[in-house]
Amino acid sequence: MTPVLVPTRANGYQGEQDGIHVTGPDGLDALVQRLSPTYTGEAVDRNRFLAESAYCPLPTLVEAARELFKTGELRQIHRARAATKPAVDEISRIIHVAAQTKSRHLILLTGVPGAGKTLVGLQTVHAHYLDDLAVARDGSSKSVPAVFLSGNGPLVEVLQYELKAAGGDGKTFVRGVRQYVKRYSGKRSLVPPEHVLVFDEAQRAFDVDKMRQSHKSETVGSEPAQFIEFADRIPEWCVVLGLIGGGQEIHVGEEAGMAQWLEAVQASPKHNEWTIHAPPGIAGSFAKQSVEFEERPTLNLDTELRFHLAKDLHGFVAGLLGAAKPNALRTLAGNLETEGYHLRITRSLNAAKGYLRERYTGDRQARFGIVASSKDRDLEKYGIPNGFQSTKRIKNGPWYGDDEDAYGGHSCRVLDTCVTEFGAQGLELDATLLAWGSDFVRADGVWSNANARGYLRSAKVKNPFQLRLNAYRVLLTRGRDGCVVFVPEMPALDETFEYLVAAGFRPI
User: Fold this and answer.
1) How many Å apart are CA 228 and CA 210, to the nearest integer?
2) H/E segment holding residue 267
3) Alpha helix (H) ranges present in 102-222?
4) Do β-strands 342-346 and 506-507 pair in parallel, antiparallel, or remain unpaired?
5) Which residues are paired to 148 by β-bridges?
6) Nearest-CA neighbor of 130 among 60, 198, 180?
7) Pick from 133, 239, 360, 433: most CB atoms within 10 A?
8) What is the pLDDT of residue 499?
9) Which backbone phi and psi does 434 adopt, to 5 degrees?
């Protein structure tokens, strides 16, 4: 085996160093011929090589959505298929059992961030697994058997924007939870036409207080209670599929957790018809309750797929936010660098922007942009427009999807606008410019949120520190192959900068 390095902007053969040949793309054919002049074996089939290669990054969520919409299936990526197919098959099996036995089921799929939970949900709804279950109701034409719903407004906006651009009606592909709840809670005689309701990010479901505030009604229950009630209206059989991640609760009203789903099923007048299916990790919440329960190991996705260059990223971020010792973190950061994932840091905003533009020169498909916390008080003074008035004007579809020279200049690549944790959660870029705010800083060796903007008294926040920590967990994990942290030159952030450098972020 002979190692060959191919810098994409080099021209011709560059030479050999330490046993490694270096050549531009135009010199690769000649080099292969020179290195293997006597090879007489069969030529490698390109399609088989790509399908079986160890380097198999999952497509971005937007790319996957386009493929599902256009073709009804995802490309056969070996690593992604092996990690998610057991869960897809198990969900399909339960749904078909529900249809055959005329029963009601709650399926809870858990997974680490980036493991493909949303893609499993999208495949369940749109990849033809349930086509045989489409039935006519009340003399009408056959309805689609399932609907994909998300409470993540920016995710819904981006997917609908991309699918409209591809020639389809994005609203038939993914719908917002708020609008769905408003429609079916407002008129109890309405029956959802679907038999399967897929709820993305179900761990973030709003509690009853937030729901009543959001919908300006004292009659609505929590989001889980609403969905179980909607499902109870569906004749004969139904399935609610909740997609659950951990440590991502960032909104007021999202802190009630998984207990809401159990309470919702127990409160159903049809609770004897329901069965809950969940993986071992959360089985303790449901076992020995009055509702039928089945433990299913395949309903947990434990393989992170989003970060094809960074299998250690979530461990690194968990340690960083857990205030681990820098020595331990530097080892993980070194592993990430070896794998090609770049952790960089600077106190110059222009240097951060220049680094990203240089890294992705010539790659018009790459997406990079500025992300920052919504609760910071100071970043706007340093050129980061993360205030409410600035971020509410962001058009998420163009921000994530457009080229930088597109009409209106809304693309993230322009690097003059910013999304907060609310606009970034559930979405991804190739690399991020994370502007670190004064709302979450190192002070005397521990993390502090003392300078964060406060919540409204009516918000009833249980743990504001945890919400800040979760927000930075989201912000630190939005880049698929890199994160550049900009730390403004303010004394309150000096210790934070020093800690991040000691933990393995490389200064630029």
Assistant:
1) 18
2) helix 259-267
3) 117-126, 153-165, 177-186, 208-215
4) parallel
5) 198
6) 198
7) 239
8) 97
9) -90, 110
Q: Contact at 8 Å (CB) between 383 and 351?
A: no
User: What's CA 251's distance to the chain center, in Å?
Assistant: 16
The conformation of residue 285, written as its DSSP 8-state character, comes to T
314, 321 in Cβ contact below 8 A?
no
Could you please report the per-residue DSSP string of 373-422?
-TT-SSGGGGT---SHHHHTT--HHHHHHS-TTSTT---GGG-S-EE-HH
Q: How far is CA 54 from the centre of its chain?
A: 23
Rounded Cα distance, 210 and 254, in Å:
8
User: pTM to 2 decimals?
Assistant: 0.70
Strand partners, 244: 110
Q: How many residues does the chain have?
A: 508
| Averaged pLDDT in 10-residue chunks for the chain of 508 residues | 85 87 89 80 66 49 61 48 80 95 93 78 82 70 77 82 63 79 84 90 62 47 84 94 66 51 90 92 77 91 61 88 91 90 96 96 90 95 94 92 86 95 87 97 94 69 86 92 96 97 96
Half-sphere exposure of 208 (CA within 13 A, CB side): 10
Answer yes or no: are the C-beta atoms of 124 and 91 closer than 8 Å.
Answer: yes
pLDDT for 405: 87
Task: Say which amino acid occupies 338.
Answer: T
- Residues in CB range of 414: below 8 A, 6 or more apart: 404
Question: Helices (DSSP H) in 138-246: which residue ranges?
Answer: 153-165, 177-186, 208-215, 223-233
- Bridge partner list, 345: 485, 507
CA dist., res. 15 & res. 298, Å (int) = 50
Two tokens, residue 436: 């670190």
CB count within 10 Å of CB 281 equals 17
End-to-end Cα distance, the chain:
35
Residue 447 near residue 313, CB atoms below 8 Å = no
* Contacts for 275 with CB less than 8 Å, ≥ 6 apart: 103, 104, 105, 106, 291, 292, 293, 294
Nearest to 199 by CA among 245, 240, 146, 162: 240
432: helix, strand or coil: strand
Give the integer Cα–Cα distance in Å for 361 and 354.
Answer: 10
CA distances to 44, 98, 262, 292, 307 from 289, in Å: 56, 21, 9, 8, 38
Beta-strand pair 482-486/431-435: parallel
> Per the structure block, which two tokens stand in for 149?
């719903």
Identify residue 168 by its one-letter amino acid code: G
